[in-house]
Write a structure and sequence with these properties.
2 copies of one chain form a homodimer.
Chain A (H helix, E strand, L loop, with lengths): L4 H8 L3 H8 L7 H14 L5 H7 L5 E6 L5 H17 L2 E6 L4 H13 L4 E4 L7 H9 L4 E4 L8 E5 L1 H14 L5 E4 L6 H16 L7 E2 L5 H11 L9 E4 L2 H13 L9 E6 L2 H4 L6 E4 L2 H17 L7 E4 L2 E3 L11
Parallel strand pairs in A: 1-2, 1-3, 3-4, 4-5, 5-11, 6-7, 6-8, 8-9, 9-10
Antiparallel strand pairs in A: 10-12
Chain A binds a DNA duplex through helix 2 and helix 4.
Chain lengths: 335, 335
DNA sequence: AAATACTATTGGAACGATCTAAATCATAAA
DNA sequence: TTTATGATTTAGATCGTTCCAATAGTATTT
């Protein structure tokens, strides 16, 4: 059996209450007593039983991390950022990978509530209803929505996807492109909507037609497949493609290559996210950097703040994206 | 305040003990009583307080997941597999990303012990001493080491990297290659050692010299940099390169492309892991599939078994790798 | 009718910490 | 010597559950 405060108390010749005070670094306890208790703890190999303490205190110092797809490198970065911030504060996260399944997500959330997490970091699965977030808020469980916003009752951390799309489009327009396509947008999630709306809005402002929009999954496979649709008819094919994310953009470049076209020369390609593999690709991918790691850190910190002071209206942190120009966008090809 | 079993008991007109029996689906309780308790729970919005129950029972139904680098897509797959298996069993995992830092790792493990995890799934950071695992084992905390083995006192799940290397090398030899290099091996971890040793062993068996071995980090950057060393002198350059992992292999292909060489034509490249991006690359990467997801699942299941019955000698599960032939290996280029 | 067996239910003590309020102790002041 | 003061220490209740042993209640057997 592992030693408890009682065992330490007996061994050190004090009461359990005193041991507890030592554990909590209370100034009330005399230096000599503290030292004695410390040596007892060392010699018995005491391990603090946080779960037992949690029962008495109101906090578990634990949060739930619910992620829509951990194998997506962008969300892996997000998770790493969260892990960093929580580590600094001495907190731990339960993790759950919903794989974009709202059912799985609900199951995970229920399980985490049973474990009495103090709050939840949620990158919602596609198709998550606002009710999921509202229900948690109603029950006094702080939630921070990350990237995808499904409810208005909880905090939100994200990037300004509209601005990101504007940066990307303006860059292409400045290079002389006039037929600009958008690939992605199949997802029924706020960042996809934001991008699509911004895309529809920015082109007319420059007197350009809103190029074709192809719905596809934001994966390499989806991007590669979209190329087939866009470039079937050479005469109407776009000269530039903005993609929902880098994964998708890498797919588009792959699709172009398979058609014998060179990305950056025969068609410009821009992505979103700035995942590492974009930089280590040829041609290197021009992209809108979203800063997943930073969003994760900010999200974790916001959640901890919210747990400490649950009052006040929901907060939003919207980080500005940055255009990273690399090789995948050349000037409009002369026809 | 959230309702407790006592509140439910009062509301349903039974004792707390009976509510507990209902919660645990005990056959002891009469159908009518059970129904009454159920409706009380529904109407009061009861949420099971597992942490409190844990204190009484000896299990927390919680494991620690300590991963050396979650942003590496291979380990992300591993994590997804673990998550799947735990979900099926109704368990939850605390997650920690050590980012290859043994210090961070020790801190995380200590924190998880305070939370009284029932076991730990460990993909050890580079430089982890056997003592870390032994200490846990001595204290009766089940550990499953994943991929990297640092101690003999705990279970281990991995792939047969020696066999993997043999498959890769034989494939290249069969294609006619005679100057075969190995890129990777900088890591002081068992899978790297296994690969290196197998590499050294297999070539002499075919009467071939053990080609150059370049130590580098198993990243795109590392692979790309290694190309510079290997292909500086054209006359002695290898015709085939086996890489520590796919990330590294993608880097090597990038480096080759930057030298104007075409992977698969001017030099063959093989990776390890079979991460998704290898398939969606041109040329598509030939690789030794390790099955990270499956290793994760097996590891989680093994840990749960071990938690249920802690007795018995440490177990090892070594899964066979599979060669996935794609485009990055052609026959030996005629000079 | 009494004894037996079985089914449902329950009070109260755990689990391992913290918290409150009160007790103890030394020291200085009256 | 007594009292006041401040510094330490502690007994005992508490958090929300499960477990044990005991208690009713009901049906079956003798």
């Amino acid at each position: 059996m592992r030693p408890t405060v009682k065992d330490i108390a007996r061994h050190a010749g004090v009461s359990a209450a005193t041991v507890s005070l030592v554990l909590r670094n209370s100034p009330l306890v005399a230096a000599a007593t503290r030292a004695g208790v410390q040596t007892s703890m060392d010699s018995l190999g005491y391990v603090y039983h946080r779960a037992a303490a949690n029962l008495r205190m109101r906090l578990t110092h634990t949060v739930g991390l619910v992620i829509c797809e951990i194998t997506n490198p962008f969300y892996a970065e997000l998770a790493a950022g969260i892990d960093d911030a929580l580590d600094q504060a001495g907190w731990v996260a339960f993790v759950a990978n919903t794989a974009e399944s709202p059912t799985r997500q609900s199951r995970f959330i229920a399980r985490m509530r049973e474990h009495r997490v103090d709050g939840i970091l949620l990158a919602p699965a596609e198709g998550t209803s606002a009710e999921v977030v509202d229900e948690l808020s109603r029950n006094g469980i702080p939630v921070v929505q990350m990237l995808r916003r499904v409810g208005r009752s909880a905090d939100y951390v994200s990037a300004d996807f509209r601005l990101g799309m504007t940066l990307a489009a303006e860059h292409l327009i400045r290079l002389g492109h006039q037929r600009i396509a958008f690939v992605g947008g199949a997802r029924r999630v706020s960042p996809a909507r934001d991008r699509t709306e911004a895309f529809r809005a920015i082109l007319p402002r420059f007197g350009l037609p809103v190029g074709p929009i192809v719905n596809c999954l934001p994966t390499r496979e989806g991007g590669a497949a979209a190329v087939g649709q866009l470039f079937r008819d050479k005469s109407s094919a776009p000269t530039a493609v903005v993609c929902h994310n880098d994964l998708c953009a890498l797919g588009v470049m792959l699709g172009l290559a398979d058609l014998g076209l060179v990305p950056g020369r025969d068609a410009a390609v821009v992505g979103f996210d700035n995942i590492p593999e974009g930089a280590m690709h040829r041609p290197a991918l021009t992209t809108v950097a979203i800063g997943g790691r930073q969003i994760g850190e900010e999200g974790a910190r916001l959640l901890l703040r919210r747990i400490k002071s649950p009052e006040g209206p929901p907060e939003s942190i919207i980080l500005p994206p940055k255009l990273v120009v690399r090789e995948s966008c050349g000037p409009r090809p002369s026809i």
